[in-house]
Amino acid sequence: MGWNYLFNLIFDSLQLRTGFKKDWRMRCLHAVLFEAGLLLVLIPFAAWWLDITLPEALKLECGLVIFFLVYAYLFNLIWDYGRATRKNKNKFIKL
Predict the structure, then answer these.
(1) CB 62 within 8 A of CB 69
(2) Where do the structural domains in the chain lie, given as residue ranges?
(3) Which residues span the membrane (predicted)?
(4) Cα first-last separation, the chain
């Protein structure tokens, strides 16, 4: 949860500064970078916790990575759609 908050805070601030649009390419990049950052922490932790090598921990994490890569993409797509819908709804109310 902490990584999700921190990563999205950084990603959204970059979006505000640079002005890029969240098309499907940026959403894919967002999901891949999120998972890569998470793996940098989780693989060494899993190797230490389970007393296995780093390649073994990577193999162990592969299934989780695939699942959460798709999940992160879809979650952020739905989140942004809901946020845009709510923002547009507020515009109509003010008129």
Answers:
(1) no
(2) 2-94
(3) 28-50, 62-79
(4) 37
* DSSP codes, 21-66: ---HHHHHHHHHHHHHHHHHHHHHHHHHHHT--HHHHHHHHHHHHH
How high is the pLDDT of residue 87? Answer: 66
pLDDT (tens digit per residue) in 55-90: 999 988 888 888 888 888 888 888 888 776 666 665
Q: Would you put residue 51 in left (φ > 0), alpha (ψ -120 to 50) or beta?
A: left
Exposed e or buried b for every residue in 4-33, given b needs 16+ CB within 10 A? Answer: eeebeeebeeeeeeeeeebeeeebeebbee
